Amino acid sequence: MIRRILFIVLAMLTLVACKDEMRQYFPQTMAGMELSDYKSGSDAAEEMNRLHGKSIEAEAVAVARYADGAAELWISRAKDGREARRQTGKMVHLMFENPKSPFSYMKRFEFEGVPIYPFTGMGKRHLVFFRGDLIYWVTVSPEASEQALADVF
């Protein structure tokens, strides 16, 4: 009887975990700001595609807003680490090379051994990087950048 109950509980937990596997990557607070909105799945993918003006190839997508949009965290999952690296490189290159881009590139730096590609624009700092098969975009005020990265890592 106890085994059956444990099995049912584990099965339910597995279903909940599979429903939104991206949620685990989003901290409840980022740079001292509380999570105020979270989207995943098709809602987040539609928003990301609208933002890019085209369909982006991703296995999964999620976005979180903190303090009603004062900061954002976007994460997409590529098919593997090689593809995540390629997509990140392409995005950084297009932002850097586009004279109409609202973003200005700053000097690349490393945070806990991960290359971070920082941009400024629209009054915020934008930090782009990948870890494994995940691609991250952090938008936050310049003074909160380091704490935001620490919270995401």
Descriptive keywords:
alpha+beta; 153 residues; globular; nine-stranded antiparallel sheet
Characterise this structure.
The chain is α+β, with helices and mostly antiparallel strands. The chain is 36% helix and 34% strand. The chain is built from four helices and nine strands, in the order H-E-E-H-E-E-H-E-E-E-E-E-H. The protein has helices spanning 2-19, 41-52, 81-97, 145-152, and strands spanning 29-30, 33-40, 60-66, 71-77, 104-105, 109-111, 114-121, 124-131, 134-140. Strands 1, 2, 3, 4, 5, 6, 7, 8 and 9 form a nine-stranded antiparallel beta sheet that branches. Mean pLDDT is 87; it is low at 4-18.
Number of helices: 4
As an assembly, this protein is: single chain
- Mean model confidence by pLDDT: 87
Low-confidence stretches: 4-18
Shape: globular
Radius of gyration: 17 Å
Largest sheet: 9 strands, antiparallel
Helix and strand succession? HEEHEEHEEEEEH
Distance between the ends: 41 Å
Strand portion, in percent? Answer: 25-35%
Percent range of helical residues = 25-40%
Strands, count: 9
What is the SS-derived class? alpha+beta
